[in-house]
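Archive maintenance. Older records in this collection stored only the sequence; we are now back-filling the structure field for every entry so that each record is complete. The fields below show one back-filled record exactly as it appears after the update. Entries are processed alphabetically, and MFS transporter is next in the queue.

ARCHIVE ENTRY
Title: MFS transporter
Organism field: Acidisoma cellulosilyticum
Length field: 440
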Amino acid sequence: MRAMTAVAMAVLLSVLDYTVVNIAMPDIARDVHVTASAAIWVVNAYQLASLIALLPVASLGEKFGHARMCRIGLVTFVGASLLCAASQTLPELAAARAIQGLGGACILGVNAALIRYIYPAKILGRGIALNGLVIALGVALGPSVAAAVLSFASWKWLFLINLPLGAVAMYFAVSALPKTPRTPVKFDALSAVLLALGLGGIVTGGDNFAQGGSAGVGIALLAIGLICMAVLVRLQLSQPHPLLPVDLLARAGFSIAFTTGFLAFVASNFFIISMPFNLTNVLHRGPVETGLVITAWPVAIVVTAPFVGRLADRYPAAFLTSIGMLITGIGFLLLRLLPAHPTDIDIAWRIAVAGCGFSMIQPPNNKAMLTTAPKHRLAGASGMISVSRLLGQTIGGMLVALTLGFAQPAPTKTCLTFAFLAAILGAMLSFSRVLAKKSD
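Back-filled structure field:
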């Protein structure tokens, strides 16, 4: 139990930080004098750094131990939180958030692998669901913590709360995390560089278009990113322990689960990032009211998560994931169709519907990714679980910036439309696994 507490505290730290920053985005944009679409880089810098580092960290976890990487992540994350609090401009804050993202990658790149070693196979679904519950608690606490802090202090204090949390998490990480088997493989530095250039080029190129930058620069960045990713995939095909786990992606069940998870987080990010702007700028709610209304999302996840964990150990992952994606999509559609002057209750119950659906996606889908991977590739599978989440959040954030900049006169409603479409596409993809099993 102490081992799971260590994992839970580390995960809570990274998730809570992500959530409070989302709620504070309008305040940060005003304070550093940038537009809403430019302020998205406060989120994207963290996510891009995490995304680039996740698979290298997973590989290093196999070589040096998952617990060690988790501890390194905690130290890096807390140190970067101080830098965030000291930042005065958007570039300074984005750079500090990128360092924070590297720390978060060290935590999230190994947490699922640690859970696989903490829990026996027959109750693995409960362990994954408990991890999901911790994530939901972080998301649930985030809006309330952000609203409380912003009601009497600057957004900088949102980063300083990581210091006491980090101290507690480090205590458990040092004393309780289990030792896991190590694989004596050489770290593939060339592949790590290609991965960084590939993902960095694609994301920054897309953001260049979102910000209305030079078309030539955007195309060049995208081209560099795509070329690097193509070279990386070609190199990985001949590797016995590939940094980019093409061996796992070649498994149909794994690749479908990965893509479904990606779409789930694209959909949720369309909602999570755009909704504070919708509540603040369109529906004229204050920061405290905005935080409290959005709390309906994680509260619904927290209430539903314990039941989902048991269901994940009893029913097919594809079926539960499909139902969850469908309910999430319906919730986003209901938000898109809000009346012109909704009450807080009108908004909150629709958000809760989407939250209930979202809670049904990750435990069964993540279990499917872990159980379809051989045990010696658990770190790679764990890394890919986090990659699906962060890639979805990063691409989702980039698309939100693009939508906020160009989809006038109602960009936030357009974001909810895209959230609905991404969720329905994910439901259809996941259900294809159910149909495939029936045909067999």
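Update note: The chain has 20 helices and no strands. The two ends are 40 Å apart (CA to CA).
Entry marked complete.
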